[in-house]
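Thread: SEC14-like protein 1, structure

OP (GT): Posting the sequence first so everyone is looking at the same thing. Length is 717 residues per the record. Can we get the structure tokens written out before standup tomorrow? I want them in the notebook alongside the other entries.
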Amino acid sequence: AAMVQKYQSPVRVYKHPFELIMAAYERRFPTCPLIPMFVASDTVSEHKSEDGAIHVIERRCKLDIDAPRLLKKIAGVDYVYFVQKNSLNRRERTLHIEAYNETFSNRVIINEHCSYTVHPDNEDWTCFEQSASLDIKSFFGFESTVEKIAMKQYTSNIKKGKEIIEYYLKQLEEEGITFVPRWTPPVACKSESSTSHPRRPVSPAINIPESATKEGLSNKEILNTSSSPSEPTAGTPDDKLDADYIKRYLGDLTPMQESCLIRLRQWLQETHKGKIPKDEHILRFLRARDFNIDKAREILCQSLTWRKQHQVDYILDTWNPPQVLQDYYAGGWHHHDKDGRPLYVLRLGQMDTKGLVRALGEEALLRYVLSINEEGLRRCEENTKVFGRPISSWTCLVDLEGLNMRHLWRPGVKALLRIIEVVEANYPETLGRLLILRAPRVFPVLWTLVSPFIDDNTRKKFLIYAGNDYQGPGGLLDYIDKEIIPDFLGGECMCEVPEGGLVPKSLYRTAEELENEDIKLWTETIYQSASVFKGAPHEVLIQIVDASSVITWDFDVCKGDIVFNIFHSKRAPQPPKKDSLGAHSITSPGGNNVQLIDKVWQLGRDYSMVESPLICKEGESVQGSHVTRWPGFYILQWKFHSMPACATTNLPRVDDVLASLQVSSHKCKVMYYTEVIGSEDFRGSMTSLESSHSGFSQLSAATTSSSQSHSSSMISR
């Protein structure tokens, strides 16, 4: 039931004629010092054609496989024998090599095919290709071990193949052999041969490009060897990838990774109608699935279907973003980072996400983000050409200065999550690094909502800086050149990114207009409303089982001024009495009003205050989080804000009384939402936060230090 492992190499180009390569290749036999496991080889049979053009030789090769002694003992063998059949055709200038295992052939089937052929565009160059398959039927219960050993041995041999040829070429050169004549048919009459096969004068100049390739191709050479830089460097046939091209445009891949890329690409060419993605994009999907070819194929096909459905290929040319986006979307491309990756700057804190979603709907926002990603792909390609090395991802710099309650508006967060989901699925492995700057204390709350939707590989690339930490050591200068640090971060570079700002309410579309675009986001609300009267606060009970959970809250003061408190109690408060409040409390137009703290309870004895009181004025939005230190019952309380007593003010007593009388006739209204985040979810996001020496350490400190607690409420005015 084992899987058949397959391998397909890229085309390797030797800038030497076929005959010279053959002379080098022949020196591998009967043994080769560069392959210690290749112990011996005997010729089993040999056949030559009369004219000497065809030479077929079959050898039995003895290998000392690098396997654990125990395995060799169980298998009862010291050596493994392979049969290798080489068919050389000097007329066609080809060598085909077939190899298979003789030992254990009923348990394990290994087949390998290699070929040396003349380069289609240059008859003085030689191409090498190899493919293989491994099928382990059974091996004394050690199938997976054997598979690992076989794959390891095989890939190390692939790498050696090139070294071996180059080693013997050098040896030949040292012996003064730099040219081996081509095969010519034996002729009776001399004059004929000279006319039938005119020899081109050969000069050692052929060797020059070889040294250039060793240091990696210089830009100049790329321009010389191909008409445009986007073409494969060595000009192999269109349907094949060559090793130099992979190294130059796609990066250093292991033999198995190259093989996966080549096989997936081949499969697409054979089965996929329509546009085939660029090699670097196919590679991204493979990387996203750790080069599991079946999983990568699945997500790539889903993405190709999605691209067709949404006409994504044409988005850059055909779609014009609405003016609102151009004016208020505070993001844009800005030069490149130190690694040559395109740099995208997003001033999220300055951006009115709520306003944008209300004015545009989710669809237009998503479309805009897609066009940014498409532009990113284009810029990666561009930078790959400019910098002379593969660049397949971009860096994103997110400035959170100004982040506030509006950013936690639920429909906005939902839109963000959907956008993240679509981008993760269709642009995998495109984010090289994410720098989050000037993160405020509310950030962990947002992070906790968003991080579960972000792929683990992606999450490792996040660096988070609180406050001005980004200016210190390990900060922005490690990643971005001083000359291009944007002005709003204290740099010298004028940054063209729009300032953002509030989207005017006049641009908001009505629920009906957005309904028509089938977005029903704002019809649902997760906020509850409550009324607060003098002497009758509103209280919400939260039971915590697991110490060091995180209670988060988010409320708007719609009317009046209130004081917000959070208390802890070891025992459960009595449920509010039915008769005093009755069912009407929920249905009453004033919204609900519940008291939980018993009149006889004493602060400090029955319950304790775990955060300092927070005074909130009418119209404010507040959000925050509290890391719980003990299990038990937590009570969030919104209380009527009474005027301060005369001890702290210069107001005469009478004015004080009058002022409080005036206010007391009013009630306050609050819209609120609370959520408890389990410590394990939060910890997950905390580790990412801690790993970036950020100012959030106080949040995690709060979970351990009992001497002081930190509230992280924040008010947006």
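GT: Both are above now. Quick notes for whoever picks this up: Residues 383 and 535 are 66 Å apart (CA to CA). DSSP finds 23 helices and 23 strands in the chain.
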